Amino acid sequence: MTRLHASADEAWLDQLQRAAFDFFPQATNPRNGLVADNSRVNSPVSIAVVGFALSSYPIAVERGWMQRDDAVGRVLAALRFFHDSDQSGGPSATGFKGFYYHFLDIETGARVWQSELSMIDTALLIGGMLTASEYFDAASSGESELRSLVDLLYRRVDWRWAQDGAGTIRQGWKPECGFLHYGWEGYSEAILLYALALGSPTHPIDRHCYRNWTLTYQWENLYGIDCLYAGPLFIHQFSHAWIDFRGIADEFMRDKRSDYFENSRRAVRIQREYARRNPREFAGYDEDCWGLSACDGPSDERPDTTNERRRLYGYAARSVPYGPDDGTLSAPCVLASLPFAPEAVMHSLRAMFERYPEGFAHGRLASGFNPTLAAGDGRAWVSAGHYGLDQGIVLVMIENHRSERVWQLIRANPYIRAGLRAAGFRGGWLQHSSSGGVQ
Amino acid sequence: MSPLDEASANVPAGADEAERAANTRPAAWRNPQPDGPYALAIVGAGPAGVIAAELAASLGVKVALIERNAIGGVNLHCGSVPSKTLIRTSRVYADMRDAWRYGASVPTGVDVDFAAAMQRVRRVRARLSRVDTAQRLAAAGVDIHFGEARFVSGDTLAVDGTRLGFRKALIATGARPHIPRIPGLAEAGYLTNDDVFELSALPRRLVVIGGGPLGCEQAQAFCRLGAQTTIVQNKPLFLGQEERDAAQILSEAFARDGIEVRLNTTALAVRMAAGTKLVDLVSDDYRNTIGVDAILSGAGRTPNVEGLDLAKVGIDCDAAGRIRVDDFLCTGNANIYAAGDVCLERSFVDSAAAAARMAVQNALLRRNHRWSDVVIPSCTYTDPEIARVGLSVREANRRGIPVKTFTIPMHEIDRAVTDGETAGFVKVHLRERTDRILGATIVARHAGDMINGITLAMVAGFGLRKLSRVLHAYPTQADAIRQVADAYNRTRLTPRVRSRLLRRIES
Hints:
The structure holds two protein chains of two kinds.
Chain A: H1 3-27, E1 45-46, H2 47-62, H3 68-84, E2 95-96, E3 99-100, E4 103-104, E5 117-118, H4 119-135, H5 141-155, H6 159-163, E6 172-174, E7 178-179, H7 191-199, H8 208-214, E8 219-222, E9 225-228, H9 251-255, H10 260-277, E10 294-295, E11 316-317, H11 331-335, H12 342-355, E12 369-370, E13 381-382, H13 388-402, H14 405-411, H15 414-422
Helix pairs in contact in A: 1-13, 2-3, 2-4, 2-13, 3-5, 4-5, 7-15
Chain B: H1 3-8, H2 13-24, E1 38-43, H3 47-58, E2 63-67, H4 73-78, H5 80-97, H6 114-128, H7 134-139, E3 142-146, E4 149-153, E5 156-159, E6 162-171, E7 175-177, H8 185-188, E8 205-209, H9 213-224, E9 228-232, H10 244-257, E10 260-262, E11 266-273, E12 276-283, E13 286-292, E14 294-297, E15 301-303, E16 336-338, H11 349-364, E17 377-380, E18 385-390, H12 393-398, E19 403-409, H13 414-418, E20 425-431, E21 437-444, H14 447-460, H15 464-467, H16 479-492, H17 495-506
């Protein structure tokens, strides 16, 4: 890479990261710190997006995009809200047993859409809280309160209850019908969830839960690449937003002589191989234009119609190589692969930008675009507005690529360290004593 | 068009049924009078019973075959034979509908002729009933007794009052549809595979309860024949025994066919209103009601053990109602064996037949063949088909066997691309760091045919290294198996091996 290219890339990354960050102040209710799921009118709050917002403030302070006091105020608003929220588990409460409903009203914080009490989304929220807690380490009263609130909110999550007496952790619960049965099997973005649930000093799950989960893994050779398989790319990214998996491995990965970071690198290669083959012959796919993941896409107008020549999935987790695949690609999941494959990602992102600038309006990445459904002027179908999960993962992964900042903060967290060790992770930074910042 | 298909256009509807009855349950049949004990008495003349009877007769021993209905069992009359026949017709309609995918124009004015489809089912059944007729089995030396059997003692069976002495017995009474306990279901009326092939008109709206192999196959077939079909499955995925990717591909195929898929959903109750069956459904906290014209129960099978007086001879059943057998297929009574759906967890004609052969050998020849040594393939005949043999990754992990899967998606296979049949994959599971095949899953339009190559390799003890030396005709979809072997071979070419080879080339 030439120096010119490198600095142009750096400048572009800076723009993209800033644009991603700007989503959060715009989407936040300053009174309670809650953040909308997306930029559309009447969007509810997604607790996972709040987790990314909480992770974004340390980055913004370090990059000079926000004053430290302002950031502390925003974090505190959210933490105080969750602390004081209705934890009765009622149909209109905010949470139960320290977990929170997936979608909340942005004004009242009450559950909306009859959404589920979500274990994985609570984990992403707690991941954001711990990040903020590690960063805001000053002795001021605001930052002290921030840290003790995070500690309290983490300690009150009853992970063991979510085990429901079963061999692995349940993924959802509703007051109307109790625990939900998604039947999630195989590798997923849940390592963060397991690390938090195992590291809890108050309500840890049984140690064997993690092993039971990894027993559902499939180690596959696909397109000639050995990989722990999962179809949508976000699965290979979300836990990596917080946890630095370089050089640490659990029993499964030790046995495979690999680690989860290397695995995500391979997942990128598989995505590119799939797009190059383009078995369903969608427009635009090639090894520089890829990214099948959870994203917004076009919907069927008449979903019940038989004899359809094309099926469209709306907001869905798109997946390689078996689908769903309706020709919709996620540029955010490509950019979020930056730490794993920086050169391929920058090369691909430039190619995608040149071909489909409509997916990069105002320098911020749309959730999904679909070149197969081009309009009359040849422009690809583009998801309207922006989604917080996309902007959050992009923001944090660019930061980890540039400075490793979020990784470093979480590496210092004793709960995460204990949880990873309980899951059987060894090696690398886990062997060394924590580098400070722990309260 | 084969002569069989041509004939089906001309034969009057009743003739096929009359032929089938004459072959499998002749009206004028008179049970033979036994003159002394049988070396082997077999209860049930489905595939397992017939195979066992033939084998025993070929050994020259005196054998009785007892059947309460008709020879051929569920398989011929209301199982695989009619089901696969109807699936074939439904595939023809699906191919016409999808003709555009193959660069052909979609025929206009295609109306489903359901009566013709069902007539072909009857014709095929009649044709296949000629294979194992009562007359032919009797000529081969098998004493056929039609009637209800029950054990009187450890060496005597009663068949409608006649006593048959035996030295060894084999129970092969099979299984029948399991009827889920849903309030109102019986009153509203429902179909099972026992009677669904007797339908004279296609139900306009159909709900299939159960997402196992039977439910999935029939939901897809009836949908393709034009029924507005909903499938209700009380688990998060179809085909709980199969791996997640297989279920994912099937879900997508179902959606393309236009089947309404209701996972994680339970049917709570059934009511009648204005001639419509109303089925109340619940999925977590979401309740709704669908109106249908027919309800098909595809919710598993129940072993036929009632009326046999098993307890009297020391035979017990497990929690699922299946006769408990040891690894040699012997029941709790040392002289009585069992085979087929009445005792096996997996309900397939091929494994029933294999179990019957093994039981006869163990019973009569005092062999010690073990059921756990048998490599059993199975297939669900949806489109695409889902076939499996040996261990799944889940089972291997549970047993602590290190496993690595080599996967070739069907879109990598030239013939699948030329055929426009790229949905699916071949996955072969190896014991890690060896080439030993533990099992395989194939999802492909003809997966049932393709799995046989892998079963052969497993039984013969071939690993992937040897399989890679077996040329597969090109272009065929089964070439995917060779490509799996090639993928394995490429992983053997480590940098160290490569540099050693390079030194040899350069020296």
